[in-house]
Specification:
The protein is an alpha+beta fold and 380 residues long. It has four domains: 114 residues, Beta Barrel (Thrombin, subunit H), CATH 2.40.10; 84 residues, Phage tail protein beta-alpha-beta fold, CATH 3.55.50; 82 residues, Baseplate protein-like domain - beta roll fold (Phage tail proteins - horseshoe like beta roll fold), CATH 2.30.300; 70 residues, no CATH class. 16% of the residues lie in helices and 41% in strands. It has eight helices and 23 strands. Strands 1, 2, 3, 4, 5, 6, 7, 13, 14, 19, 20, 21 and 22 form a 13-stranded mixed sheet that branches. Strands 9-12-11 form a three-stranded mixed sheet. A three-stranded mixed sheet has the order 16-15-18, with helices on one face. The longest helix is centred in the last third of the chain and has 17 residues. The radius of gyration is 24 Å and the shape is globular.
Length: 380
Amino acid sequence: MLRGTNFTLLIGRTLPAPAPVWLMNTIESVQVSTTDDGASGFDMTFEAGRSGGLAGALDFQHFTRSTLRPFSRVVMIVTIRAIPKVIFDGVITNIQSAPSSEPGATKIKVTGEDLSFFMDRVEVSKTHNLLPDFGMVATILSKYSYLGILPAVFPPLNSSPASIKRPPVQKGTDLKFLRELAKKHNNVFYITPGPLPLTATAYWGPATRTGIPQRALTQNMGPMTNLNSISFQNKAEQPSVVVARVQDSDFNQVLPVITFAPTRIPLAPISSLLSAFPYMKREKIENSNGDRYNDARSKAQAKTNSSTEDSVTATGELDVSTYGSILQARKLVGVRGVGFTNDGLYYVKQVTHNIKIGSYTQSFTLTRDGTGSFLPVLPV
């Protein structure tokens, strides 16, 4: 790869082991995509050819001499300045080959998904008696400890007690149900690889908008610039509030549900909801006769939170050798050198690693709920 940067690949059906040298030497490119609202994925492209002897006459060595097979577990580790970082842990789900008569032109492309793949294989119909939503999540995730997955489940601030009248029923796969529960509270569900190889963390809770920001993304500041490109979008029409009346099943009366502002920790001083006043959207929520008031209020607040949290987005690209580190999704990062309106803290929603020999870049998507900056200084 780059000087001071190493790429390690572990692969295998039962216990992944370091890929053989000959296989590593045929890697043409690696791409890993990480996001906070869906499964992470990868694709690797190999240069393939027939080796000598009987084995080479029968098939490509990538199929006869390696564990490059469907459902093999794949772990990718990048080491920068002697610090290793697991950037992917998942399973191969698709293999494509494109044979060619031209020397060196035959390609094999392997794609896969993170460990949430195993949570999406079996559909069930099950009743979770007397458990709040986060309790159901913890129970489901405990089944996947054999994969090295540790649960990190955080109760939503607006959660309500389990419904005794109508115990929740899971219909579909575990992954589908986990995402439905997350969406209900405007939470996120994802699996983060590491910190050690063959371990991972399953996170269910609010998007992480606290903590120490990563190294600042810098533009237009001379030798401190570490971005190849960046652009911003302010979706002024997106913020919304909820004004509705719902039928409460416990008290058998109609109660008002109104949301005035997001309940998330703001990342910008000038809220997009405030900027949209008085033209912000006014929405209603679906309400069935069996809903409880707390459930309806939770749905309403989730709508407002969701409408504002990515009303300002930034997309761009950086070179890892210039940035000096790996930009991680699902964490905070500062942006500077682009003017007060766009400077400040952002949530890293999506990152794509693009790895080739001699090149390592990352494309990214950042989001936040408004404009301006709370901080006069950002970590460099």
